[in-house]
């Protein structure tokens, strides 16, 4: 749960500058502004002959369709974004924005004292084409940072606010008026979680959840947003009294007073049942009974449910199906399950030997591959499962064992903790020198997409030369890679520098859809 295991997501969009050809570069550690444009190994130049498969930018405008009378007063902002021609970049965008099946988000937890500002986080998220983010409150600075970012945000009502939210409708109305309405719809909020893992709390806390959810729904209805923003609450797997075999999955009877009205609320409002699932903990605490491969989706072992004959090759599916069977037993089979936290730590104490970067990479990569294929689970094949990976950053203020502070995909300085490709395609683990702008050895380079706009290129260059830690001094006037003096040429040099120093992974050539990979040496 967030209050003891703060786990969150981040996607953001940097604000593009005017189409001027200047950007910050680092020279001897000092950031300056200079004209931009060029790339590669010795000559630094980039050929204009690039991948012939070019497509025009396609702008998709999200029109405001007000189909309900109570929404007629709402004025929704139009959105537009580009459909990119590069196969790699397009795949990434489809997975996080257009993909018609399961969605993949990231949790953006902030239980740390060394994290980048929300604005920088939004830029990082946008660079990596993450389109779904979960936060655990309604922090105003975060909401502002994600305005017009093309990211769908899940926000939260902390457990500490359940009492005032459940007692008085006016408390919720005021919160909505002051904390949500001023930023919506520029900040695209799609879910509100009311409480987190309350079954881990005393029973009197659980009793507050449904009244608070009802008051949030009433507040949203007053402003015509109850069909645009879904309400739910998150749970740990401890909500079940039994999870093995999956067909015997059952809710803990001690929570019945809370679960029945909560499930009725979800069914009535077509909201998902939100669950936080961690095969890592099951393996760590039961290594004598659970194999590491089974926890990591490595498919080298099988577990057969004796009641159904269903075969399970990974723990994630088994835990999801245990919840499916528990819901079915209470006649709520149609409620969709959403995984609001899952992941694997990259570091732990000597006793937590499975908490390694390699295992974190294996789990998250296999998880993403499993989800984007929409294979479902043995009990519900083909079922779409939305997931949020925990977490965007390591969080140094979280209590508990060492692993609790090491679930992040990125360090606070925004560099990758391990070479994870969010597309699920996998990527080689390659350590590159920061100043290497040659090919990584795979014979690939990252250059600018021919159809990228100057504004998008400038925004990507600003990020790479700043938070991205690329040394951009070579494209300054009178420096070896300054010519040809064009934004596209300079951006290609900068893109490739970032790409090579981050392991030449597909995701490292995203740049908000402005980069593309090539197998032709551009020098």
TrEMBL record:
Annotated signal sequence range: none
Places the protein is found: Cell membrane
EC number, as in UniProt: 3.2.1.39
Top-level division of the source organism's lineage: Eukaryota
Primary location recorded for the protein, binned into one broad class: membrane
Catalysed reactions, as listed in the record: Hydrolysis of (1->3)-beta-D-glucosidic linkages in (1->3)-beta-D-glucans
GO cellular component, one term: side of membrane
Transmembrane portions of the chain: 81-99
Record GO biological process: carbohydrate metabolic process; defense response
Domain X8: 444-523
Record keywords, A-Z: Cell membrane, Disulfide bond, Glycoprotein, Glycosidase, GPI-anchor, Hydrolase, Lipoprotein, Membrane, Plant defense, Signal, Transmembrane, Transmembrane helix
Gene3D superfamilies, per database record: 1.20.58.1040, Glycosidases
Membrane topology recorded in Swiss-Prot or TrEMBL: Lipid-anchor; GPI-anchor
GO molecular function: glucan endo-1,3-beta-D-glucosidase activity
PROSITE patterns, sorted: GLYCOSYL_HYDROL_F17
Cross-referenced InterPro entries: GH, Glyco_hydro_17, Glyco_hydro_17_plant, X8
Family affiliation: Belongs to the glycosyl hydrolase 17 family.
The name this protein goes by in its record: glucan endo-1,3-beta-D-glucosidase
Organism of this sequence: Kingdonia uniflora
């Amino acid at each position: 749960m967030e209050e003891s295991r703060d786990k969150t997501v981040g996607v953001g969009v940097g604000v593009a500058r005017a189409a001027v050809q200047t950007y910050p570069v680092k020279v001897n550690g000092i950031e300056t502004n200079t004209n931009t444009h060029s790339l590669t190994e010795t000559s630094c130049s980039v050929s204009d002959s690039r991948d012939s498969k070019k497509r025009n930018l396609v702008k998709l405008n999200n029109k405001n369709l007000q189909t309900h009378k109570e929404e007629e007063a709402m004025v929704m902002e139009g959105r537009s974004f580009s459909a990119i021609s590069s196969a790699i970049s397009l795949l990434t965008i489809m997975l996080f924005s257009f993909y018609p099946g399961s969605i993949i988000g990231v949790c953006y937890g902030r239980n740390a004292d060394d994290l980048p500002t929300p604005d920088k986080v939004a830029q990082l998220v946008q660079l990596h084409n993450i389109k779904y983010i979960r936060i655990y409150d309604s922090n105003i600075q975060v909401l502002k940072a994600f305005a017009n970012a093309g990211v769908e945000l899940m926000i939260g009502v902390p457990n500490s606010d359940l009492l005032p939210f459940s007692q008085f409708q006016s408390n919720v109305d005021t919160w909505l008026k002051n904390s949500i309405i001023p930023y919506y719809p520029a900040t695209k909020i799609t879910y509100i979680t009311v409480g987190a893992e309350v079954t881990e709390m005393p029973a009197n806390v659980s009793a507050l959840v449904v009244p608070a959810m009802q008051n949030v729904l009433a507040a949203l209805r007053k402003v015509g947003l109850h069909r645009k923003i879904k309400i739910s609450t998150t749970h740990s797997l401890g909500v079940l009294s039994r999870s093995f075999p999956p067909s015997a999955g059952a809710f803990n009877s001690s929570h019945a007073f809370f679960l029945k009205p909560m499930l009725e609320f979800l069914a009535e409002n077509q909201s998902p049942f939100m669950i936080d699932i961690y095969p890592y903990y099951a393996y760590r605490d039961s290594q004598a009974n659970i194999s590491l491969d089974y926890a990591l989706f490595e498919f080298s072992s099988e577990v057969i449910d004796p009641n159904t004959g269903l075969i399970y090759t990974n723990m994630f599916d088994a835990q999801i199906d245990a919840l499916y069977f528990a819901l079915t037993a209470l006649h709520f089979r149609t409620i969709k399950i959403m995984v609001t936290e899952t992941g694997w730590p990259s570091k732990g104490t000597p006793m937590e030997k499975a908490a390694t970067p390699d295992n974190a990479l294996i789990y998250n990569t296999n998880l993403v591959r499993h989800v984007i294929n929409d294979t479902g689970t043995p009990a519900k094949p083909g079922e779409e499962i939305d997931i949020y990976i925990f977490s965007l950053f390591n969080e140094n203020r979280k209590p508990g064992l060492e692993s609790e502070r090491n679930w992040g995909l990125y360090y606070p300085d925004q560099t990758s903790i391990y070479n994870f490709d969010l597309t699920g395609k996998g990527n080689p683990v390659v350590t590159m020198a920061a100043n290497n702008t040659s090919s990584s050895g795979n014979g690939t380079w990252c250059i600018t997409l021919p159809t990228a706009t100057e504004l998008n290129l400038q925004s990507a260059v600003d990020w790479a030369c700043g938070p991205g830690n690329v040394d951009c001094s070579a494209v300054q006037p009178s420096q070896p890679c300054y010519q040809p003096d064009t934004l596209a040429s300079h951006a290609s040099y900068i893109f490739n520098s970032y790409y090579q120093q981050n392991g030449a992974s597909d995701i490292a050539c995203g740049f908000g859809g402005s980069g593309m990979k090539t197998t032709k040496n551009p020098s």
